Each structure stands twice: as structure tokens, then as C-alpha cells.
Amino acid sequence: MAAPSLCPHQDGGTLALPSQDGGRGGVARNRRKGFVGSRFPLNMAEGAEEGQKLAELLALGWRLWEELETDTAPSSGSPAVQDKVRQGLDVLWRANAMVTQLDLFSENEDLEEVASADLKYLLLPALLGAMTLKQVDLSKRLEHLESARALFWSFLKLCKSYGLGSFHLPPATSPPAEEGDRSPPRRSPAAIQDKLVAMASSRQAKIERYKQKKELENRLASMKNSVDSGQADEEQIRAFYILQTQKWINTSLEEIESVDQEIVILRSRGTAKQSSAPPHGTSRQVRPPMKPFILTRDAVQNKVFGAGYPSLPVMTVDDWYDQRRRQGVVSGQGTPPGLTDEELQKQQQEKKEEEDDEETLEKARNMDDWKDTHPRGYGNRHNMG
Question: What is the Cα–Cα distance from 196 to 191, expressed in whole angstroms?
Fold first, then answer.
């Protein structure tokens, strides 16, 4: 008989997975009937007590997981939340050890051969994987991700052997990290088209899984009260846990996809840190310290940045008036300083009219006559209507 494969336990133990031979199924059925292997009969009272303890462990672990899912704590890393996570992991690992010891499941038996009361224990690896992901120790994050992925994969593999759901079983191991210094190869148009088709198929599969998940949740909600209260018969209990298993199949597929992406990121980050670290025995060249220099507010800095406001006065009002007078703009006979060019020209025009300048008077009369025959705004009607 082939030995069962092992999955690493977080505390150093192992999770025994079903073997590929035909003996485990027979042993499982003998255990359910009250025999261990083919020689040692189980004490019926001890068997009933052990089964009751196993059911209590699973119920407690499931309740803790549901409380963590619906918890409204501000941080998942708070001590109270992490204590609940550790308690849930301890309870579920103890329940899993009992299931492994009892050999309840085998890949070589059909789903009809599993007792209805034992179907709920199929969910133990998935619950363990989900609880493992709730640990927030960053120094062991990669270890937790790999452990959770192995648990989800073992659950999917067992469901695949029982024919629960039609899905593609992911690879047993996560993809390796990509080297950062290697440039991506050129792809042909056909390869790019194949990748786009694969992405569209993956998106469609996610949509279908989401719809199926919502439908399963609605059906489970309608059956949960009768199962929890003990009013459901065996067929209803069997249908309830089969639906639970199908729901966790979708959850496990989503979690494996998310875990693979995070593992690639963490491994790439570790590779980048190793490549950036100096080789053993060599030290980086020590550069001499730079001499400090100070930017002072001297004339050079003022030429570059200015004074910080629009301008500084360069002459007094009297100097400006003398300059304008030398340019012939203003006369030197008592004209008040600070006038604009228009005001000065207007004053000169009025002064010429007062002196009865013939040319100026003629222009003023002609303008008055023109205003009498041309209303204001007369010349602006060219483009109207």
C-alpha cells in the first residue's frame, strides 16, 4: 500500500492527503462501520464520543471563521483578531488530525459512498487555507501563502476525485518569480491574439463563478435554518453540504489565483533585494564627504531671483519730471508733476483754444459740424443685420 502524501502543518505537523491506491477507501468504509483496518474493532462508545468531539471542533472552527469574516474591527492585525485566528487554526488542525486518523475520505471511492454526516469534513482543508491567509506576520507571509495554497489545492484535488463541480485543477505549485533584468521576449501577433483570447476566457470564467457563487449563497441561506435546528432529513443535509462544497470550490479557485499573484510579487522582491546586495567579502567604495556650501543673499543671487517684488524705484518724481521735460513732452512752466501723456496733451489743446489759434479753432468747428450730422455710433453699423 502506498504511503499517503503529506502537506506541511504550520506548527511542524503534517496534513495527510488521500493516497492513490485502493486500500484507503476500504479502510475508510471499515472505520465508518466500526473497524480499524481489518483487525482491531473500535469501541462503539469511544467512536461515538470521538465523532461528537470532531463535530464540535469543526463547528467551533467554522463559527470562528464566520466571526472573522463579519468582524468590523478596524484592523485585522489587532491582538484580539489574531488571537481568534490562532484559536481557529488550532481547532481546525485538531479536527483535521482526527479526520486523517479516521481515514474518512479516499480518492478511490465515489461520492455516494461517503456518509451524509461526513460530507462537512470535506471542507476542513479549505477552512484551514482561508484561516491561514488571515495571519498578518509579514516575516512569514510567503510561508503562510504557500501553506494556504497547498491546503486549497488538496481540497480541490479531493473534490475533483469525487466529481464535485466541473473545473480545471490548477498546478500543484505556484509559478516561479520572473527575473527583473530579463527583457520580455517579442511575441508574434498570433501569440498576442492567443493571450487575448485566454484573458477573455478567464474573465468569462470569473463572471460565471461569481453568478454561481451568488446562486449558491441564496440556496444555502434558505436551507441553513433547517439544518442548524436539526429539522432537516438526511437528503437535505447531504444537499446542503454538497452546495457548501461547491461554494468553497469557487472560493478556493479565486484564492489560489490571488495567492499566486502575491507569491510572484514577494519572490520578485526577494530576488531584487539579493541582486542589489553587495557580494560577500566586498565593500562598496566609500566616497569622500562633500564640502558644505551656503547660498547667501548677495548681489549675484539678487540678479538671478530679483528682489521678490515687481521692481525698485530708480529715480525720484522730480528726476522723472525733468527727464520728460528734456524730451519735450511737458513744458517747464508750472505743470504739475505726475500727469500722464493724455492729460498733458489735453491741457495743451485747451491752452491753444484759449489763445485763439486759428488752425485749432477750425478743427474744433469742423468736428462740431460733423457731430451734428452724424449721431454717436453712426460708423459702427456696417456689420449689423
Answer: 9
Question: What are the C-alpha distances in Å from 90 to residues 85, 86, 116, 152, 166?
Answer: 9, 6, 25, 18, 32
Indicate the pTM of the whole model: 0.56
Query: Which secondary-structure segment (H or E) carries 35?
Result: strand 35-36
Residue 180 has pLDDT above 50, yes or no: no
Q: How far apart (Å, rounded) are the C-alpha atoms in residues 18 and 158?
A: 8
Report the DSSP beta bridge partners of residue 314. Answer: none
Rounded to an integer, what distance in angstroms lies between the CA atom of residue 203 and that of residue 217? 21
178-186: average pLDDT: 52
DSSP label at 73?
-
Question: What is the Cα–Cα distance from 251 to 69, expressed in whole angstroms?
Answer: 13
Question: What are 365-373's contacts with CB under 8 Å, separation 24+?
Answer: none
pLDDT tens digit sequence for 75-131: 677 888 889 999 999 999 999 999 989 888 888 888 888 898 899 999 999 999 999
CB within 8 A of 184, min separation 6: which ones?
none
Write out the DSSP string of 281-334.
T--PPPPPPPPP-----SHHHHHHH-SSSS----S-HHHHHHHHHHTTSS-SSS
Kindly state the average pLDDT of the residues 252-277. Answer: 82
Query: Which residues on neighbouring strands pair with residue 40, listed in sequence order?
Result: 36
